[in-house]
Amino acid sequence: MKIGxxxxxxxxxxxxxVMHGFVKAITAIDPKVEIYGIFDGYDGLINRxxxxxxxxxxxxxxxxxxTILGTSRQPYKKLIQIEDNNKAAQMKDNYxxxxxxxxxxxxxxxxxxxxxxxxxxxxxxxxxxxxIDNDIWGTDFTFGFHSAVNIATECIDRIQTTAASHGRAMxxxxxxxxxxxxxxxxxxxxxxxxxxIPEIPYDIDKIIKAVEAAEKKNGFCIIAAAEGAMxxxxxxxxxxxxxxxxxxxxxxxxxxxxxxxxxxxxNVETRVVVPGHIQRGGSPTPYDRxxxxxxxxxxxxxxxxxxxxxxxxxxxxKITSNNLAEVAGKTKFVLPKHELxxxxxxxxxxxxx
Length: 353
Ligand code: F6P
Known about the structure:
Elements: E1 2-7, H1 15-29, E2 34-38, H2 42-46, E3 50-53, H3 76-81, H4 87-98, E4 102-107, H5 109-120, E5 125-129, H6 145-166, E6 169-174, H7 181-189, E7 194-196, H8 204-218, E8 221-226, H9 239-248, H10 255-266, E9 270-273, H11 286-304, E10 310-315, E11 318-323, H12 324-327, H13 339-346
Parallel strand pairs: 1-2, 1-4, 4-5, 5-10, 6-8, 6-9, 7-8
Antiparallel strand pairs: 2-3, 10-11
Helix pairs in contact: 1-11, 6-7, 8-10
The structure holds 6-O-phosphono-beta-D-fructofuranose.
6-O-phosphono-beta-D-fructofuranose (F6P) is lined by residues 10, 73, 108, 131-133, 175-177, 227, 280.
């Protein structure tokens, strides 16, 4: 067998761990397997950036952050949807020229859409769900998510000591533009007073009240705010309009606006901390290493059984797979009635509604 592997979209911890698991398992299925590493995501498939990689080279990468194959963002719209664009044709053509039996694609939402397209066009695709956002439909968790939760939680924990020492309100802006899973998990795990996520638009007056209560009770306040947090008014606009309105105010995210309102209304010293890409960096947690290994091995099993057009998933603790065509393009949002949101509210965490 000849198998191509690529990693696409934003990196996260666990990409190498999945490839480590996949290559070991596929080598056991077919000891003569030839593995081709395709570099920098779909860009490598378009521009023929690949080379044969000995299975041995995938050893010792279980714990390594990032991706040894490199990655790039190739938005589905630019890759596939634009007419007059031969990138889709180039990918199909190169797959055939490489004479691949299967293409293994590790990536998030956008990557899955392109993977579903390629599968529909007859390529033998198996995808794996990567992202710190945990927003891929049909899987309980994406790999990379738990590692990011660990980092985000540690960031908030460390901020808490400064907040307590200075009596400040500290806003920690957590990654997640469209969905708030990472903020929700890290917010609960760190004992934050307020959690603000895109799925639950906030009312600044409610946030102020919650800050006032936390300052009164604890002498400081911790707010975990997703980078995609928006107020109730902004929620009425489209993403494009929202970005435009924020640009007019010199804003990218809502965090500084929230901080300013708190400082003005309550006369409380307020700071914003943005851990940013730190949340995507470094070694995967043991939990991620385990599910990455399981997912990689499952992808090899799918290839061995020639079950293509699938994306690997975790369902109630069991590794399984879903039809790419069914899950690609669907976003797994935090439902405002989700049990975790309910539990957080039950212990007194405010969502600023
Ligand atoms: O998709 C993962 C993610 O980290 C999001 O949470 C974040 O909004 C985005 O990527 C940042 O992208 P980039 O690394 O391209 O700035």
